[in-house]
Structures are given as C-alpha cells and as structure tokens.
Amino acid sequence: MTAYGPTTIQEIYVIDESLNPICLTMWGKFVQDECQKISEIIEDKPIILGTKISVRSRNGLSLSSRPSSTFTINPILPEAATMKKWADDNDLIIKSIIARNLTYPSAPLSSVGIREIVKNCDIAELIKGLQPMEKLKIWIEAKIKVIDLDQIFYYMSCVGCNKGTGYKYNESFVCMYCKNQGVCKPRARAYVELDDNTGKIAAIMFGEVAEEAFGCSAIELMENSGEEHQPYIKSVADKLSTKIWKIQVYADPEKLNEKRHKHFNVLSIEAMEDERNDGSSS
What we know:
Layout: E1 9-14, E2 22-27, H1 29-40, E3 48-51, E4 54-56, E5 62-64, E6 70-73, H2 78-89, H3 91-101, H4 123-128, E7 136-145, E8 154-158, E9 172-174, E10 181-195, E11 200-206, H5 207-214, H6 218-223, H7 230-241, E12 244-251, H8 253-256, E13 264-271, H9 275-278
Parallel strand pairs: 2-5, 11-13
Antiparallel strand pairs: 1-2, 3-6, 4-5, 7-10, 7-12, 8-10, 9-10, 10-11, 12-13
GO biological process, one term: nucleotide-excision repair
GO molecular function: damaged DNA binding; single-stranded telomeric DNA binding
Protein name: Replication protein A 70 kDa DNA-binding subunit B-like
C-alpha cells in the first residue's frame, strides 16, 4: 500500500562477482512485465541491465525500481557475455549462496528469488560449503519413489503439536509435550527416495505434504495398512512415482551424520505442470 493506493511489488535477488546477494525491489508495472519474463527463465541465470535505479545503503545495500527505470534482460553486450560466462563457471558457488540465503520455507515457489533448482549430485558439495550450525534448504526437481512398501505410512499423534503418542485413534488425552488436552489422530508419514536422474537422496515426508503426494488422507492410509491392503499401497506408490515434483528439502548436516537421522525432510512439494509430467513414466 502506498499513499496513492495499493500497488504490487516483487523482490528479486541479484548477484555479481562480489558474490553478495542484493535485493532489488520491483514496483508496479515491472512486476507484470520484467519480473514475469525473469521468472520464466530464472533457471538459466539471466543477466539484467538496469538504469535509473534507486540505491539505498541503510541496513545494507538494496536496490529499487523507479517509474523512470529501464531493464534489459540478457542484453547483447560484451559485458553481459562476460557476466554470463562467470555465472556458468561459478554455478555451484552461486547455488550454495542461494541455498544459504535465499530459500525460505514460507515463501511461494513462484517467487523469482528462490526458484533455483539444485541437482542431487551437487547436494553433498553444498553441504560441505555450509558454515557451522548452518542448515540446508533447497529446491530440487525429482520423482518421489516408495522403496519400502512394508513401512507404516502413518503414526498416531497429538493434533496440537504432531508429536507421536501411544494412545488410540480418537482417544482423548493430555499430551506430555504440549500439555494440552486433545484427541489422538493419525498423521501421514512416508520414507521415500527422491530421484532426479543425477542422484538419489533418502527423505521423509510428514502430514499434509505426504497426503498431497499420495493423494489420500492419513485416515485412508491407516485404514489401508497391513499386508492385506498392500495392493492399494502399491497402486498409490506407483502413481506417485510417475510424476516429477518440485520439492523443497531441509537438512541439518550434524543430524545427517547420526545413524538415526539419515533422511532429508520434505518441506513442500508441487507437481510439475508441463510436458515433463505428460511424458514421464515410472
């Protein structure tokens, strides 16, 4: 909202040879025009030439468009060609910076600044580049495969805090974790493999994410558990593995080194709505 009424803004993160991400805030018409074009080719690391941009140094350097600003995407200039070569040569470093600074679990997938897709084969190097105590949040494009069909695809939980409990379905109890009285409900959980053809990573999905992937509720997974229902589980898993998904995963490097925590956590997923899913097969 501005003094002249509501307006649309979009934050873009740009980076140059200094390797310091800078926030560029686009206002009004630039969101519908330039931002849309950039979002469509963001994986190719487009080069942006901007003129008459507002520069601010308070609380760190930031940029902002003005009504008189102009932007050229992938300009045909020697300097742009040099910058493009630099970006290609430093691809892994740039991905590491994005993974550390520009991915947030609450941000929409369509946000221009966070759509960098990481290949599974590069994840180990990204983790090595993290600072002590840093966590990894990245986006990948992969198929979700259920390797172990005998696993239990739910656990009984407190509806208030999602912690596991030994109480039975619909049984009322006081949770030892959140201290609230609630009702015991099943929560979906699945140990899966994320395969993008460059590598495979072990991951775990919980709650609504797992329900979205399987296309059924935790109650349905509970009601169809057991050896006699394995054809149902196999059908759901086979259907899941035919799709390519955009997946945000999270990892704590310290916990990955422990025997009990060898899985990445899946934070969110979105089915790819393009020809890759139309033509994909299990």
